[in-house]
Design goal:
Elements: H1 4-16, E1 40-45, E2 50-54, E3 60-61, H2 65-78, H3 80-86, H4 113-121, H5 130-145, H6 153-161, H7 164-175, H8 183-194, E4 197-198, H9 200-211, H10 226-239, H11 245-251, E5 256-258, E6 263-268, E7 272-277, H12 288-301, E8 316-324, E9 327-338, H13 340-352, E10 359-370, H14 372-387, E11 391-395
Parallel strand pairs: 9-10, 10-11
Antiparallel strand pairs: 1-2, 1-7, 3-4, 5-6, 6-7, 8-9
Bound molecules: glutamic acid.
Keywords: Acetylation, Hydrolase
InterPro entries: Beta-lactam/transpept-like (IPR012338), Glutaminase (IPR015868), STAS_dom (IPR002645), STAS_dom_sf (IPR036513)
Catalytic activity: L-glutamine + H2O = L-glutamate + NH4(+)
Protein backbone atom coordinates (compact mmCIF):
# COMPACT_ATOMS: atom_id res chain seq x y z
CA UNK A 1 0.00 0.00 0.00
CA UNK A 2 1.18 3.53 -0.80
CA UNK A 3 0.88 6.07 2.02
CA UNK A 4 -1.94 8.52 1.32
CA UNK A 5 0.02 11.37 2.95
CA UNK A 6 2.12 12.53 -0.07
CA UNK A 7 -1.00 12.44 -2.26
CA UNK A 8 -2.90 14.44 0.32
CA UNK A 9 -0.14 17.08 0.57
CA UNK A 10 0.06 17.30 -3.24
CA UNK A 11 -3.68 17.89 -3.31
CA UNK A 12 -3.33 20.65 -0.69
CA UNK A 13 -0.48 22.22 -2.68
CA UNK A 14 -2.56 22.16 -5.87
CA UNK A 15 -5.57 23.69 -4.15
CA UNK A 16 -3.54 26.40 -2.41
CA UNK A 17 -1.52 27.33 -5.48
CA UNK A 18 -4.74 28.88 -6.79
CA UNK A 19 -4.27 31.50 -4.06
CA UNK A 20 -2.65 34.51 -5.66
CA UNK A 21 -1.59 37.87 -4.33
CA UNK A 22 1.18 39.27 -2.22
CA UNK A 23 4.70 40.27 -3.17
CA UNK A 24 8.07 38.78 -2.23
CA UNK A 25 9.92 40.95 0.31
CA UNK A 26 11.91 43.64 -1.43
CA UNK A 27 13.31 45.72 1.44
CA UNK A 28 16.28 43.32 1.29
CA UNK A 29 16.99 43.69 -2.47
CA UNK A 30 18.42 40.18 -2.87
CA UNK A 31 15.15 38.62 -1.60
CA UNK A 32 13.17 40.24 -4.41
CA UNK A 33 15.05 38.08 -6.95
CA UNK A 34 13.24 34.90 -5.84
CA UNK A 35 10.85 33.07 -8.20
CA UNK A 36 7.43 34.02 -6.76
CA UNK A 37 5.84 30.78 -7.95
CA UNK A 38 7.98 28.53 -5.80
CA UNK A 39 5.79 26.56 -3.42
CA UNK A 40 6.72 23.71 -1.12
CA UNK A 41 5.05 21.96 1.81
CA UNK A 42 6.66 19.57 4.30
CA UNK A 43 5.32 17.70 7.29
CA UNK A 44 7.60 15.87 9.73
CA UNK A 45 6.23 13.46 12.29
CA UNK A 46 7.69 13.23 15.77
CA UNK A 47 9.18 9.84 14.89
CA UNK A 48 11.09 11.34 11.98
CA UNK A 49 9.03 10.60 8.88
CA UNK A 50 9.09 13.54 6.46
CA UNK A 51 6.52 14.09 3.74
CA UNK A 52 7.66 16.78 1.35
CA UNK A 53 6.01 18.03 -1.85
CA UNK A 54 6.60 20.72 -4.47
CA UNK A 55 9.63 22.95 -3.83
CA UNK A 56 10.18 21.54 -0.34
CA UNK A 57 13.85 20.83 -1.18
CA UNK A 58 14.55 24.36 -2.48
CA UNK A 59 16.85 26.49 -0.29
CA UNK A 60 15.87 29.95 0.88
CA UNK A 61 16.87 32.13 3.83
CA UNK A 62 15.35 31.39 7.22
CA UNK A 63 14.98 35.09 8.20
CA UNK A 64 12.69 35.64 11.19
CA UNK A 65 11.96 31.95 11.71
CA UNK A 66 15.42 31.83 13.29
CA UNK A 67 14.15 34.14 16.05
CA UNK A 68 12.16 31.38 17.75
CA UNK A 69 15.14 29.02 17.89
CA UNK A 70 17.72 31.64 18.85
CA UNK A 71 15.42 32.78 21.65
CA UNK A 72 15.33 29.14 22.81
CA UNK A 73 19.14 29.10 22.69
CA UNK A 74 19.35 32.26 24.81
CA UNK A 75 17.05 30.59 27.35
CA UNK A 76 19.16 27.41 27.17
CA UNK A 77 22.37 29.42 27.74
CA UNK A 78 21.16 31.74 30.51
CA UNK A 79 17.96 30.35 32.02
CA UNK A 80 14.48 31.76 31.55
CA UNK A 81 14.58 34.22 34.42
CA UNK A 82 17.63 36.07 33.11
CA UNK A 83 16.23 36.24 29.60
CA UNK A 84 12.83 37.47 30.83
CA UNK A 85 14.62 40.24 32.70
CA UNK A 86 15.82 41.51 29.31
CA UNK A 87 12.95 40.62 26.92
CA UNK A 88 9.23 40.57 27.71
CA UNK A 89 6.78 38.03 26.21
CA UNK A 90 3.77 40.25 25.42
CA UNK A 91 2.35 40.40 21.88
CA UNK A 92 3.13 43.85 20.54
CA UNK A 93 0.49 44.24 17.83
CA UNK A 94 3.13 46.32 16.06
CA UNK A 95 5.11 45.69 12.88
CA UNK A 96 8.17 43.46 13.36
CA UNK A 97 10.64 46.28 12.83
CA UNK A 98 9.01 48.81 15.18
CA UNK A 99 11.38 50.91 17.24
CA UNK A 100 9.68 50.33 20.56
CA UNK A 101 10.23 49.13 24.10
CA UNK A 102 7.67 48.44 26.85
CA UNK A 103 7.17 50.57 29.96
CA UNK A 104 9.92 48.66 31.79
CA UNK A 105 12.38 49.44 28.97
CA UNK A 106 12.44 45.88 27.59
CA UNK A 107 11.67 44.81 24.02
CA UNK A 108 8.06 43.57 24.04
CA UNK A 109 8.82 40.06 22.82
CA UNK A 110 11.60 38.07 21.13
CA UNK A 111 9.76 37.72 17.81
CA UNK A 112 9.98 41.39 16.85
CA UNK A 113 13.37 42.67 15.78
CA UNK A 114 14.12 44.61 18.98
CA UNK A 115 13.64 41.42 21.03
CA UNK A 116 15.29 39.18 18.45
CA UNK A 117 18.43 41.32 18.25
CA UNK A 118 18.59 41.30 22.06
CA UNK A 119 18.12 37.50 22.16
CA UNK A 120 20.89 37.15 19.57
CA UNK A 121 23.33 38.94 21.89
CA UNK A 122 22.34 36.68 24.80
CA UNK A 123 23.72 33.62 23.03
CA UNK A 124 26.86 32.27 24.71
CA UNK A 125 28.89 33.92 27.46
CA UNK A 126 28.84 37.75 27.69
CA UNK A 127 32.36 37.93 26.21
CA UNK A 128 31.51 35.74 23.19
CA UNK A 129 32.73 37.40 19.98
CA UNK A 130 30.03 38.17 17.36
CA UNK A 131 31.40 35.58 14.88
CA UNK A 132 31.44 32.91 17.62
CA UNK A 133 27.83 33.71 18.43
CA UNK A 134 26.92 33.23 14.78
CA UNK A 135 28.78 29.90 14.73
CA UNK A 136 26.90 28.80 17.84
CA UNK A 137 23.61 29.76 16.20
CA UNK A 138 24.44 27.94 12.94
CA UNK A 139 25.37 24.89 15.05
CA UNK A 140 21.98 25.07 16.78
CA UNK A 141 20.03 25.46 13.52
CA UNK A 142 22.03 22.59 11.97
CA UNK A 143 21.29 20.36 14.97
CA UNK A 144 17.60 21.15 14.61
CA UNK A 145 17.60 20.43 10.86
CA UNK A 146 19.78 17.32 11.23
CA UNK A 147 22.25 18.52 8.56
CA UNK A 148 24.97 21.17 8.20
CA UNK A 149 23.51 24.53 7.19
CA UNK A 150 25.31 27.51 5.66
CA UNK A 151 24.81 31.24 5.08
CA UNK A 152 23.64 32.81 1.81
CA UNK A 153 26.43 35.39 1.50
CA UNK A 154 24.57 37.45 -1.13
CA UNK A 155 21.44 37.81 1.01
CA UNK A 156 23.59 38.62 4.03
CA UNK A 157 25.51 41.36 2.17
CA UNK A 158 22.27 42.72 0.73
CA UNK A 159 20.65 42.87 4.19
CA UNK A 160 23.69 44.53 5.81
CA UNK A 161 23.79 47.12 3.04
CA UNK A 162 20.16 48.11 3.72
CA UNK A 163 20.00 47.56 7.49
CA UNK A 164 19.23 51.15 8.54
CA UNK A 165 16.11 50.14 10.40
CA UNK A 166 17.83 47.35 12.36
CA UNK A 167 20.76 49.68 13.07
CA UNK A 168 18.30 52.22 14.46
CA UNK A 169 16.82 49.47 16.67
CA UNK A 170 20.29 48.43 17.84
CA UNK A 171 21.18 52.03 18.69
CA UNK A 172 17.91 52.36 20.60
CA UNK A 173 18.78 49.17 22.53
CA UNK A 174 22.27 50.53 23.25
CA UNK A 175 20.88 53.83 24.49
CA UNK A 176 18.75 51.88 27.01
CA UNK A 177 21.73 49.79 28.15
CA UNK A 178 20.18 46.60 26.72
CA UNK A 179 23.04 46.16 24.25
CA UNK A 180 26.65 46.95 25.01
CA UNK A 181 28.28 45.66 21.80
CA UNK A 182 28.69 47.87 18.74
CA UNK A 183 25.40 48.29 16.87
CA UNK A 184 27.10 47.62 13.50
CA UNK A 185 28.68 44.36 14.67
CA UNK A 186 25.49 43.10 16.27
CA UNK A 187 23.33 43.90 13.24
CA UNK A 188 25.85 42.30 10.89
CA UNK A 189 25.91 39.11 13.01
CA UNK A 190 22.11 39.11 13.42
CA UNK A 191 21.77 39.44 9.63
CA UNK A 192 23.94 36.34 9.20
CA UNK A 193 21.56 34.47 11.50
CA UNK A 194 18.68 35.57 9.22
CA UNK A 195 20.59 34.56 6.05
CA UNK A 196 21.00 30.87 6.97
CA UNK A 197 19.79 28.70 4.09
CA UNK A 198 17.10 26.11 4.80
CA UNK A 199 14.51 24.11 2.90
CA UNK A 200 10.90 23.49 3.89
CA UNK A 201 11.99 19.92 4.71
CA UNK A 202 14.63 21.29 7.13
CA UNK A 203 12.10 23.62 8.69
CA UNK A 204 9.55 20.82 9.16
CA UNK A 205 12.18 18.81 11.05
CA UNK A 206 13.15 21.85 13.10
CA UNK A 207 9.48 22.34 14.00
CA UNK A 208 9.08 18.62 14.68
CA UNK A 209 11.94 18.91 17.19
CA UNK A 210 9.80 21.42 19.08
CA UNK A 211 6.76 19.15 18.74
CA UNK A 212 8.88 16.28 20.06
CA UNK A 213 9.80 17.97 23.37
CA UNK A 214 13.15 19.22 22.04
CA UNK A 215 14.45 15.91 20.66
CA UNK A 216 15.39 15.97 16.95
CA UNK A 217 13.24 13.13 15.60
CA UNK A 218 15.83 11.72 13.16
CA UNK A 219 19.15 12.15 14.99
CA UNK A 220 17.68 11.69 18.49
CA UNK A 221 19.69 14.69 19.74
CA UNK A 222 18.12 16.53 22.68
CA UNK A 223 18.41 20.14 21.48
CA UNK A 224 16.12 21.76 24.05
CA UNK A 225 14.51 20.55 27.25
CA UNK A 226 10.75 20.03 27.38
CA UNK A 227 10.36 23.16 29.54
CA UNK A 228 12.37 25.30 27.10
CA UNK A 229 10.28 24.07 24.19
CA UNK A 230 7.03 24.75 26.02
CA UNK A 231 8.13 28.33 26.63
CA UNK A 232 9.33 28.93 23.05
CA UNK A 233 6.12 27.49 21.60
CA UNK A 234 3.98 29.64 23.90
CA UNK A 235 5.74 32.76 22.65
CA UNK A 236 5.39 31.55 19.05
CA UNK A 237 1.67 31.13 19.62
CA UNK A 238 1.11 34.64 20.93
CA UNK A 239 3.76 36.57 18.98
CA UNK A 240 4.96 34.40 16.09
CA UNK A 241 2.91 35.73 13.19
CA UNK A 242 3.94 39.39 13.24
CA UNK A 243 0.96 41.61 14.00
CA UNK A 244 -1.64 39.04 12.87
CA UNK A 245 -1.10 36.67 15.80
CA UNK A 246 -4.69 36.84 17.07
CA UNK A 247 -6.19 36.04 13.69
CA UNK A 248 -3.72 33.18 13.26
CA UNK A 249 -4.49 31.61 16.64
CA UNK A 250 -8.22 31.58 16.01
CA UNK A 251 -8.12 30.40 12.41
CA UNK A 252 -5.09 28.05 12.46
CA UNK A 253 -4.35 27.44 16.13
CA UNK A 254 -0.81 26.13 15.66
CA UNK A 255 2.20 27.81 17.34
CA UNK A 256 4.07 29.22 14.37
CA UNK A 257 6.75 31.58 13.11
CA UNK A 258 7.06 33.13 9.72
CA UNK A 259 9.93 34.82 7.93
CA UNK A 260 10.17 37.33 5.11
CA UNK A 261 12.02 34.72 3.03
CA UNK A 262 8.59 33.12 2.49
CA UNK A 263 8.79 30.33 5.07
CA UNK A 264 6.39 29.50 7.86
CA UNK A 265 6.87 26.81 10.49
CA UNK A 266 4.23 25.39 12.78
CA UNK A 267 4.58 22.87 15.59
CA UNK A 268 1.93 21.12 17.62
CA UNK A 269 3.22 19.38 20.72
CA UNK A 270 3.17 15.61 20.42
CA UNK A 271 1.89 15.73 16.85
CA UNK A 272 4.02 17.08 14.03
CA UNK A 273 6.15 19.86 12.58
CA UNK A 274 4.89 21.64 9.47
CA UNK A 275 6.57 24.03 7.08
CA UNK A 276 5.67 25.90 3.95
CA UNK A 277 7.70 27.94 1.48
CA UNK A 278 6.00 30.41 -0.85
CA UNK A 279 7.67 33.84 -1.26
CA UNK A 280 4.81 36.34 -1.88
CA UNK A 281 3.93 38.01 1.42
CA UNK A 282 0.77 39.70 2.68
CA UNK A 283 0.66 43.14 4.34
CA UNK A 284 1.72 41.62 7.69
CA UNK A 285 4.80 39.98 6.13
CA UNK A 286 3.39 36.43 6.19
CA UNK A 287 3.50 34.17 3.14
CA UNK A 288 0.07 34.35 1.46
CA UNK A 289 0.04 30.73 0.29
CA UNK A 290 1.66 29.60 3.51
CA UNK A 291 -1.18 31.10 5.56
CA UNK A 292 -3.73 29.49 3.25
CA UNK A 293 -1.96 26.11 3.46
CA UNK A 294 -1.74 26.17 7.24
CA UNK A 295 -5.45 27.00 7.49
CA UNK A 296 -6.29 24.09 5.25
CA UNK A 297 -3.97 21.65 7.08
CA UNK A 298 -5.33 22.72 10.45
CA UNK A 299 -8.95 22.21 9.31
CA UNK A 300 -8.30 18.88 7.58
CA UNK A 301 -6.13 17.30 10.25
CA UNK A 302 -7.80 18.76 13.32
CA UNK A 303 -4.39 20.12 14.35
CA UNK A 304 -5.74 23.16 16.18
CA UNK A 305 -4.58 23.79 19.69
CA UNK A 306 -8.12 24.32 20.89
CA UNK A 307 -9.44 21.19 19.25
CA UNK A 308 -8.83 18.55 21.85
CA UNK A 309 -10.76 15.33 21.54
CA UNK A 310 -12.72 15.02 24.78
CA UNK A 311 -11.10 11.90 26.22
CA UNK A 312 -13.14 12.08 29.41
CA UNK A 313 -16.42 10.77 28.11
CA UNK A 314 -14.90 7.74 26.42
CA UNK A 315 -12.32 6.83 29.04
CA UNK A 316 -14.49 4.06 30.49
CA UNK A 317 -15.25 2.06 27.36
CA UNK A 318 -17.40 -0.55 29.10
CA UNK A 319 -17.80 -2.41 32.34
CA UNK A 320 -18.87 -5.94 33.21
CA UNK A 321 -18.87 -8.47 36.02
CA UNK A 322 -16.83 -11.69 35.81
CA UNK A 323 -16.60 -14.65 38.17
CA UNK A 324 -13.16 -15.63 39.36
CA UNK A 325 -12.45 -18.27 41.99
CA UNK A 326 -15.99 -18.05 43.31
CA UNK A 327 -15.79 -14.28 43.63
CA UNK A 328 -17.47 -11.76 41.34
CA UNK A 329 -15.38 -8.85 40.17
CA UNK A 330 -16.46 -5.56 38.56
CA UNK A 331 -14.17 -4.74 35.64
CA UNK A 332 -13.81 -1.26 34.15
CA UNK A 333 -12.26 -1.23 30.67
CA UNK A 334 -10.39 2.06 30.25
CA UNK A 335 -9.08 3.43 26.97
CA UNK A 336 -7.19 6.23 25.23
CA UNK A 337 -4.73 8.55 26.87
CA UNK A 338 -5.57 9.28 30.48
CA UNK A 339 -4.69 12.75 31.66
CA UNK A 340 -6.35 14.96 34.22
CA UNK A 341 -9.83 15.00 32.69
CA UNK A 342 -9.89 11.26 31.96
CA UNK A 343 -8.78 10.35 35.47
CA UNK A 344 -11.27 12.83 36.92
CA UNK A 345 -14.00 11.06 34.95
CA UNK A 346 -12.97 7.65 36.37
CA UNK A 347 -12.76 9.04 39.92
CA UNK A 348 -16.17 10.71 39.55
CA UNK A 349 -17.82 7.63 38.13
CA UNK A 350 -16.45 5.40 40.92
CA UNK A 351 -17.43 7.86 43.62
CA UNK A 352 -20.90 8.69 42.30
CA UNK A 353 -21.73 5.15 41.25
CA UNK A 354 -19.68 3.01 43.66
CA UNK A 355 -19.04 -0.60 42.63
CA UNK A 356 -21.24 -3.04 44.51
CA UNK A 357 -18.60 -5.77 44.29
CA UNK A 358 -15.73 -6.28 46.68
CA UNK A 359 -13.23 -6.81 43.87
CA UNK A 360 -12.70 -3.95 41.39
CA UNK A 361 -10.52 -4.32 38.30
CA UNK A 362 -9.17 -1.41 36.24
CA UNK A 363 -8.35 -2.94 32.87
CA UNK A 364 -5.78 -0.70 31.12
CA UNK A 365 -5.35 -2.87 28.02
CA UNK A 366 -6.86 -0.15 25.79
CA UNK A 367 -4.92 2.69 27.39
CA UNK A 368 -2.04 4.12 25.30
CA UNK A 369 -0.53 6.28 27.97
CA UNK A 370 -1.21 7.85 31.32
CA UNK A 371 0.13 11.30 32.13
CA UNK A 372 1.74 12.00 35.47
CA UNK A 373 -1.36 13.67 36.89
CA UNK A 374 -3.54 10.89 35.41
CA UNK A 375 -1.40 8.28 37.13
CA UNK A 376 -1.52 10.04 40.51
CA UNK A 377 -5.28 10.48 40.31
CA UNK A 378 -5.94 6.85 39.29
CA UNK A 379 -3.73 5.58 42.11
CA UNK A 380 -5.44 7.89 44.61
CA UNK A 381 -8.81 6.61 43.39
CA UNK A 382 -7.58 3.04 43.97
CA UNK A 383 -6.33 3.96 47.45
CA UNK A 384 -9.72 5.38 48.37
CA UNK A 385 -11.53 2.32 47.01
CA UNK A 386 -9.32 0.27 49.29
CA UNK A 387 -10.22 2.48 52.24
CA UNK A 388 -13.86 1.72 51.43
CA UNK A 389 -13.05 -1.98 51.76
CA UNK A 390 -12.56 -2.91 48.09
CA UNK A 391 -9.76 -5.00 46.71
CA UNK A 392 -8.42 -3.23 43.57
CA UNK A 393 -6.61 -5.02 40.73
CA UNK A 394 -4.99 -3.79 37.53
CA UNK A 395 -4.78 -5.40 34.13
CA UNK A 396 -1.75 -3.64 32.67
CA UNK A 397 0.01 -5.80 30.10
CA UNK A 398 1.75 -2.78 28.50
CA UNK A 399 2.92 -1.41 31.84
CA UNK A 400 1.29 2.00 31.36
CA UNK A 401 1.28 2.47 35.15
CA UNK A 402 4.58 0.90 36.21
CA UNK A 403 5.15 0.43 39.91
CA UNK A 404 1.49 1.03 40.81
CA UNK A 405 1.76 1.93 44.47
CA UNK A 406 -1.22 3.99 45.65
CA UNK A 407 0.87 5.29 48.53
CA UNK A 408 -0.36 2.90 51.18
CA UNK A 409 2.67 0.67 50.80
CA UNK A 410 0.90 -2.09 48.91
CA UNK A 411 1.18 -2.23 45.11
CA UNK A 412 -1.96 -2.94 43.17
CA UNK A 413 -1.97 -6.63 42.28
CA UNK A 414 -1.88 -7.36 38.55
CA UNK A 415 -4.30 -9.73 36.87
CA UNK A 416 -3.89 -11.35 33.49
CA UNK A 417 -6.06 -10.03 30.64
CA UNK A 418 -9.72 -10.52 31.54
N1 LIG B 1 16.37 39.84 8.57
C1 LIG B 1 15.07 40.35 8.67
C2 LIG B 1 15.06 41.63 9.49
O1 LIG B 1 15.50 41.64 10.61
C3 LIG B 1 14.15 39.35 9.23
C4 LIG B 1 12.80 39.88 9.16
C5 LIG B 1 11.73 38.84 9.07
O2 LIG B 1 11.89 37.74 8.53
O3 LIG B 1 10.66 39.21 9.56
O4 LIG B 1 14.63 42.64 9.00
Amino acid sequence: MRSPLPDYLTEVAEACSATKGGEPASYIPELAKVDPDRFGIALATIDGEVYAVGDAEHEFTIQSISKAFVYGLAVRDHGLEQVLAKIDVEPSGEPFDELSLDASGRPRNPMINAGAITAHTLVGEPDTAPHERVERIIRLLSDLAGRELSVDEDVWRSEVATADRNLAIAHMLRSHGILTDSAEEVVSAYSRQCAVLVTARDLALMAATLANSGVQPVTGKQVFTGAQVRHVMSVMLTCGMYDSAGDWVSSVGIPAKSGVGGGIIGALAGQAGLATFAPPLDAHGNSVRGVETFGRLSRDTGMHLMKVEPPARSVIQSTRVVQRGGESMRIYYLSGTIGFSGAEFVARRLSQDPPEHHAVVLDLTGVHSVTDVGRRMLLETARRLRLDGHEVYLVDTDDVIPDADPGDGRRLPLLADQ
